[in-house]
Design goal:
globular, 342 residues, seven-stranded mixed β-sheet, homodimer, Phosphoribosyl-aminoimidazole Synthetase, Chain A, domain 2, 2 domains, 29% helix, alpha+beta
């Protein structure tokens, strides 16, 4: 299918970073094929390491969000919560994290302090310790103010194995709250747009609700936070990994009126917009009410809903059913509708 | 001392990334003071995590080397060996690593593949598994081709506590080989210089010699690899951390003739030039011969030497004594003589 003479496929494009189809292609063609032998786990955001008494979960992410400060957060809390959430999505208790700063020459030291302080406060709030770090400076014009990389270690103290491989037919899918806030909050304050809205990022730690779900003995099959590519990409990714058919109910998917309005203006579909404090939970249908209760108690700013279910296994696709019963198939975006939102 | 009206101190400068005095100031003023409460360990390159059956060592580094390919290596093997070596310096067996790519739009995918392949081969050689990763793409003009961040996890299966806090008076200091190759190899192939030399980077895994030293029951007090800032900065840093007076013998410090010649031309002091496959070892004097033998057997391309000793504790300084008995005090560079060599 791929035309080898097509120059555009020979270099990395912005869309390769968008969490959509092109990113998955890049990962599978470049990294998965080369790193396969060393045991890289490409279908989950964090690796579960074998052979330890309490199992270790290990994850990494880089943050290149533009701008660095946005309503509801900044690159610092984004980096901490992003790492905490990747650990939580494997059912791990976040324990330790590293932070690597790549700073561009000329970056204001006061901004660096403000971001470090935001990281300290977020780490304290999420119960993770920043234990090791690194700083590199690149010459002016060869960076973009600040990039941050974090890696995190968490411990799994229970017997649940949470991962895409455990999705079951008839699983209910709970969505932890309204969607689309983070992507819109970042987009709205970009210089070229400067949209006047009151949208704040949903950036938050998801460790508490997840650990409480585990304490409540919810038989969690799979968890995924809805970052780059939004709810749609997360579900398509899961569906493709475990060959599940997923049916979503449009009525169950909440979007704040100001988010919906901004999406209208910008021509965006909130299903594909990034979140930084929302997750989907795959679980046995009979445990749904208890799970909703637990999430409701531990997530202050959002209301969990049953968003859909796994209707079958063996026919990987995601279907959105609206209130009139009309269905459409949801695909991953090829590229990226919102570059550099995390 | 600091003039608050001096604008140059209010922004990050290239010299803040050089491993010298300015970098230490930035770390202590910005990061150490803010992250202190969360347990950040600023005096070692990797954190030792408490409370596990086999102790865990955790480290991170970002790589911004320019150019990405240089004689003797590339950013990929540099990133793998850098992480492996930070783990080894705490006496840990390297086990798992993460890799985060920050790619600039337009970067050739073939180069990305070549670098990923180099990482795979280096990881296999060093016995570490790449288990988790992340890719971000930044728009053209806001990166510099490719930055890589890695984090690593290693396990300590012995009772030695290796760290700057264990340096003892009368410790011998063994240097694992000749110095200055990596920095010169990178500098020599920069476009603006294009110095014609045969210098290859010393970029290599140090896990094997360190693990063999531990197997041989060498009572290792402190280890440090000689990266940014070179031998001089590493020793000044150790001396200041543990308040030790260190005396170095110039005669024991080997520099290849082509490295010495290139240093002449560029006006550099090899004591401050970065290495990526060399370390210093602090140990009881009576174990020196055994240590030299072990290192000699496991480092193919270098010859270990006794480079100096800890002459006292309580008077932190590093003295270089030449063959005529003349002494000079070695300080950390303020900034950086070679930006972006790792």
């Amino acid at each position: 299918m791929k035309n080898v003479n097509d120059k555009s496929t020979d270099v990395v494009q912005l869309a390769h970073g968008g969490g959509g189809r092109m990113m998955h292609q890049l990962i599978s063609e470049v990294f998965a094929s080369i790193f396969d032998a060393s045991g890289l786990d490409c279908s989950n955001d964090a690796a579960l390491l074998p052979g330890q008494q309490s199992r270790i979960v290990f994850t990494t992410d880089s943050y290149v969000v533009d701008p660095l400060f946005f309503p509801g957060g900044d690159i610092g809390c984004l980096a901490v919560y992003g790492t905490v959430n990747d650990l939580a999505m494997r059912g791990a208790r976040p324990a330790y994290m590293s932070v690597g700063f790549i700073v561009e020459e000329g970056f204001p030291i006061n901004d660096l302090k403000r971001i470090a302080e935001s990281m300290r406060a977020s780490a304290q709030h999420a119960g993770i310790s920043i234990v090791t770090g690194d700083t590199k400076v690149v010459d002016r014009g060869h960076g973009h103010g600040l990039f941050i990389n974090t890696a995190g270690i968490g411990f799994v103290d229970h017997d649940l194995v949470i991962g895409v491989e455990n999705v079951q037919p008839d699983d209910a899918i709970v969505l932890s709250g309204d969607i689309g806030r983070h992507g819109l909050a970042v987009m709205a304050c970009r210089q070229e747009l400067a949209l006047e809205t009151s949208i704040e990022s949903d950036c938050a730690s998801l460790a508490e609700p997840i650990l409480k779900l585990i304490d409540a003995r919810i038989d969690i099959h799979c968890l995924r936070d809805l970052t780059r590519g939004g709810l749609a990409s997360a579900l398509v990714e899961i569906s493709e990994s475990c060959r599940a058919e997923i049916v979503l109910n449009q009525a169950g998917i909440k979007v704040l009126p100001q988010v919906a309005a901004a999406c209208e203006i910008l021509g965006l579909d909130p299903l594909y917009v990034a979140n930084e404090g929302r997750f989907v939970l795959f679980l046995p249908a009979e445990q749904v009410n208890l799970a909703l209760e637990v999430i409701d108690r531990s997530c202050a700013d959002s209301k969990p809903v049953v968003a859909g279910r796994v209707s079958a296994v063996g026919n990987p696709r995601v279907i959105l059913r609206n209130e009139y019963g009309t269905e459409r198939v949801i695909d991953m975006l090829s590229g990226d509708q919102l570059p550099r939102i995390c």
